[in-house]
């Protein structure tokens, strides 16, 4: 029986401050993402934010009035009313100027007035050119904010406006939603403190010759979201990463592997000391039986590739598991997907299977969000199309519940 999934931000009231960087257009997508996670979103644009995107965009997206300034309704003392309404304040993108104003406590517009009147958790997501990000003034603002308990979702590295490349891009939507979720869940914040969690992620590569390999489409984004969430909840995290399209988040011990065999060796070497093992990696089931020593050449004819099975890490973890360990597997299924996930759950002695569709338009590979189900021995929890960060948060909620039930 499918149970409705609990949206990770169900009922949360989020104040969204949008300041004037080019990434302001991404804040519209963030508003939508937060709402998909169950939140009510009240946007507030600074004057420069409004030069980048219009208030109408946010009003249409959120169904809420978007006030322009404290002078819209002086009698209503709107900045105080908004500050009382919100449960979390997120400023995304946060320009260098916005960070400086927030750090200094300077209230010169609606957003900064709300920020001063607001007593709840604050999340800032800086986005700016690398030079401005690295400037000591900006770094000092950040330090001040962090010392005050503000959660900083750091910028990513990548292409910036005017063709430059470097740190300064607004963080990925998944990381922003995870930041808001974590800021709102202080009870979960230390929920995995003292717990050792191993997460495998990415896709293995099985060499054919020194330059070619058999691989798969896994980006490692799901595993990276689990690592980030486990770190945020205070766990001691080991990330065993095969090939990934994203850098595994900071805060975890990173072990890099390439092949299914290396992944098997690395995970099993660590398994005995772990409390929770989550196998999000897409591991090759087969590898070329023979790896050519030199590069295979066209003029040698079409090679015949004979495959042999790889060791199944998860099955071995299931065989060796301690009764107190929590073991989570992933299933990427086509066709009768629930039956396949249930088979895996039983055959590999798992507590939970995260089931993804890998067919057609709903394929989870490489996407920022996914259709997923959490399947255990008795129930199927459906997580309607939601972000990988939200899936990670819900998955770790379930892991915590399993651990609590075991005392
Ligand atoms: N896994 C593993 N070692 C392998 C293959 C898979 O540890 N050699 C893990 C994956 O990390 C994932 C789960 O097992 O958590 C997937 O199970 P698997 O039975 O391999 O599923 P599929 O690859 O989807 O295989 P099939 O549909 O062929 O059963």
Shape: globular
Radius of gyration: 23 Å
Largest sheet: 9 strands, mixed
Mean pLDDT: 90
CATH superfamily membership of the largest domain, which one? Answer: CoaB-like
- For the record, give the distance between the C-alpha atoms at the N and C termini, rounded to a whole number: 27 Å
Give the CATH topology of the largest domain.
Rossmann fold
**How many DSSP E strands?**
20
Question: What do these coordinates show?
Answer:
This protein is α/β, with parallel strands linked by helices and 407 residues long. It folds into two domains: 13-184, Flavin prenyltransferase-like (Rossmann fold, 3-Layer(aba) Sandwich), CATH 3.40.50; 196-405, Rossmann fold (3-Layer(aba) Sandwich), CATH 3.40.50. The chain contains 15 helices and 20 strands. Helix 1 links the parallel strand 2 and strand 3 (40-45). Residues 1-6 have low confidence and may be disordered. The structure holds cytidine-5'-triphosphate. Cytidine-5'-triphosphate (CTP) binds at residues 260, 279, 281, 283, 285, 310, 312-314, 329-332, 344.
């Amino acid at each position: 029986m499918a149970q409705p999934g609990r949206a990770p931000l169900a009922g949360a009231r989020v104040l969204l401050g949008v300041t004037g960087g080019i990434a302001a257009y991404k804040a519209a997508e963030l508003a939508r993402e937060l709402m998909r996670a169950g939140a009510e979103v009240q946007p507030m644009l600074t004057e420069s934010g409004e030069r980048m995107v219009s208030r109408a965009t946010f009003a249409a997206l959120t169904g809420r009035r978007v006030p322009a300034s404290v002078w819209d309704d002086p009698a209503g003392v709107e900045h105080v009313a908004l500050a009382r309404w919100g449960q979390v304040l997120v400023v995304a993108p946060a320009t260098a100027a916005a960070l400086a104003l927030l750090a200094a406590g300077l209230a010169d517009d609606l957003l900064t007035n709300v920020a001063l009147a607001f007593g709840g958790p604050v999340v800032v997501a800086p986005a700016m050119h690398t030079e401005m990000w690295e400037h000591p003034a900006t770094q000092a603002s950040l330090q001040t904010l962090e010392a005050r308990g503000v959660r900083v979702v750091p910028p990513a590295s990548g292409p910036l406006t005017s063709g430059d490349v470097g740190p300064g891009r607004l963080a990925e939507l998944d990381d922003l939603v995870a930041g808001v979720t974590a800021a709102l869940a202080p009870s979960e914040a230390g929920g995995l403190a003292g717990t050792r969690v191993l997460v495998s992620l990415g896709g293995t590569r099985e060499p054919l010759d020194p330059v070619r390999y058999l691989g798969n489409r896994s980006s490692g984004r799901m595993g990276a979201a689990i690592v980030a969430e486990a770190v945020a909840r205070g766990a001691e995290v080991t990330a065993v990463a095969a090939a990934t399209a994203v850098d595994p988040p900071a805060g975890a011990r990173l072990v890099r592997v390439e092949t299914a065999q290396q992944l098997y060796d690395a995970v099993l070497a660590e398994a005995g000391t772990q409390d929770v093992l989550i196998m999000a990696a897409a591991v090759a089931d087969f590898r070329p039986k023979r790896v050519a020593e030199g590069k295979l050449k066209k003029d040698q004819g079409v090679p015949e590739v004979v495959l042999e099975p790889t060791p199944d890490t998860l099955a071995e973890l299931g065989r060796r598991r301690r009764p107190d360990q929590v073991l989570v597997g992933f299933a990427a299924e086509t066709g009768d997907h629930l039956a396949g996930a249930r088979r895996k759950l039983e055959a590999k002695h798992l507590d939970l299977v995260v089931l993804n569709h890998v067919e057609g338009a709903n394929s989870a590979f490489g996407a920022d969000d996914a259709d997923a189900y959490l399947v255990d021995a008795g129930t199927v929890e459906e997580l309607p199309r939601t972000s990988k960060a939200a899936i990670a948060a819900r998955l770790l909620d379930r892991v915590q519940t399993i651990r609590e039930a075991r005392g």
